[in-house]
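Lab notebook: predicted structure, single chain.

Context: the supervisor wants predicted structures on file for every construct in the current expression panel, including those that have not yet been purified. This is the next one on the list. No modifications to the sequence; it matches the entry in the shared construct table.
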Amino acid sequence: MEVSTTTTLYSATRLQLRGFGLPAGDTEPVDSTMTFPDGGHYRIEVPTVNSAEAAGRILAESQRRGFTINRITETFGMFRHTADEIRQYVDLGAQYGAEILMSVGPRATYDIGGGVQTPEGARTGYRLRGQEQVVRAIEDIKRAIDLGVRGFVVYDEGLVWVVDQMRKAGQLPAHIHLKASAHCGHGNPASARILEMLGANSFNPVRDLTLPMIGALRATVSIPIDIHVDNPRLSGGFVRTFDAPEFVRIASPVYLKTGNSALDGHGTKPTTSQVDDIVTQVEVVSEFLARYRPEACQSPVDTTKNRRGRRPLEAAATPI
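Prediction complete. Output recorded below exactly as produced.
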């Protein structure tokens, strides 16, 4: 709950933070007054879909069962996929009207540096080590753009800024989507504001935030927030299905990330049985949204905007 600035507890600091456009504290969740440009309050994202085969099965099965998936996110690393498989992802996005986001490949866990493997190394996250890795990350993005990809998961704040500068300079397409990953480790309004300023088009906070904490994020930034409804075992393993309608209420426009609780970890490829479990979890979340937040609108898919080389679905927030 947000603490009133009239209280004597840290009142001066709270007032000073308000002066910078930040909340005075974690806010009592209120209804968000923002939507996606198409009027939608939420979109469904299925993360950790690390093969085109799995993406195709998930999208086809969701269509057969009658619920909508707006975004498929790959997290294995683009540089670990062949050009043909990346094209398959792009074509699936066009066929089903789903956004396709792919992850920038070179990152700390794939690098030769030993620091990330130590207990302290968890603080490094997936960030890039050295300028040569920044160069290679940009090359990874350029390769994917040539193959039709228009949305990217970025794990390094510096890379977000560099790619945004390249967009502004006309060196990369202006409309590519930059998603700041939860692996950057951000979970407070000041950090969210920084990512927005650096050029992130959506922001994925850490996975274990309370509803008041998420409310404080929405009170600070206008870009969509990507929120985990559930998680792989190695990332916590929690399942917050009952929170999904509340995420929509307080954080709209929001991407609800669901399905990868069926997996053990982030960089894995799902088995056939795991794909079935992913689809079931997404269907359950869709049912909960219909039951407990029926007034909320999910963005429709659009098969005309995500063809190879064309502009993907917009993701900027719009006041109601």
